[in-house]
Amino acid sequence: MSFVPRFTPPPSPPPPVRSGVPWGWLLIFVFVAGYLVANSVNRWRAASVHNLQATPQPVVPRGDLAEDEQSTIELFRNNSPAVVYITTAHISNQLRTLGETTNQGSGAGFIWTEEGYVVTNDHVIAGSNVAQVTLVDQSVWPAELVGRAPGKDLAVLKIAAPADRLHRILVGSSEDLLVGQKVYAIGNPFGLDQTLTTGVISALDRRIAASEMSANVVAKRTIDGVIQTDAAINPGNSGGPLLDSHGRLIGVNTAIYSPSGAYAGVGFAIPVDTVNRIVPQLIRHGRIIRPDIGILPFRDQWTRQWGLVGVLVRDIEVKSTADLAGLLPTRVIDAPGGRGYAQVLFGDLIVEADDSPIKDLNDWFTFLEKHQTGDRVTLKVIRAARTPEQEQLAIEIELEGPSD
Question: Rounded to a whole number, what is the largest CA-CA distance in the chain?
Answer without folding.
Answer: 150
